[in-house]
Amino acid sequence: MDPKAFYDLSYGVYIVSAWDNGRPTGCTANSAIQVTSSPATVLVSINKDNHTNRCIADCGHFAVSVLHEQSDPAVIGTFGFRSGKDFDKFAAVPYDVKDKMPVVRDSCAYIACKVIGTMDTPTHTVFLGEVFGAEKTGGGRPMTYAYYHNVIKGKTAKNAPTYQAETPAPAGKRVCSVCGYVYEGDFDALPDDWTCPVCGQPKSAFRKA
């Protein structure tokens, strides 16, 4: 089997959010699909190890924030490479409460859903949601997963359904210890307040490959 064949499937980049006992939480996802138009139904696939998985199951609702090509890449890193179990992701990312759900402000649309069914897989739970709220929240072209990888040079979190082991960075390159982003330029010339463009970590989080 050639795993690269999966790269030809189309994906977007989303933040799937829920409530954690009254506190907003969420994770980055690339699998969000409209299943039917009437009644409008959407599904998302969330890794069982993600804190968001339990939160969706507990509160019975989720929202999908659709990121656009100009969305801050640090949003993707914050929600994709840190756990909401011990880190308040929404404290670092501006959000609004729409249709009683937390949604990322730096997005082009959101969809709010009530869980009406689930499908179990060995590693992920597929949540089926009936849409009760949706809105275009801004302009911009929706970000595709290909754009995230090819233009932003973003990395895939190990809990993502599309994760595949990547080629190690060349020796001597600086690599973010949180998200795996490889800095290609002169690392020592960067200002002290520079942060990883993918996950927002400081220079001190980078290690030599």
Itemize the secondary structure elements and their pairings.
Elements: E1 14-20, E2 23-29, E3 32-37, E4 40-47, H1 51-59, E5 61-66, H2 73-80, E6 95-98, E7 101-104, E8 109-120, E9 124-136, H3 145-150, E10 174-176, E11 182-183, E12 206-208
Antiparallel strand pairs: 1-2, 1-5, 3-4, 4-9, 5-8, 6-7, 8-9, 10-11, 10-12
Distance between the termini: 30 Å
Overall domain count: 2
The CATH topology label of the largest domain is Pnp Oxidase, Chain A
Kindly provide the name of the CATH class of the largest domain: Mainly Beta
Strand order of the largest sheet: 2-1-5-8-9-4-3
**How many beta-strand segments?**
12
Biggest pleated sheet: 7 strands, antiparallel
Q: Bin the helical content.
A: 10-25%
Series of H and E elements = EEEEHEHEEEEHEEE
Structural class: mainly beta
Q: Under the CATH scheme, which architecture of the largest domain would be assigned?
A: Roll
Mean pLDDT: 86
Strand content: 35-45%
Structural Rg = 17 Å
Count of DSSP helices? 3
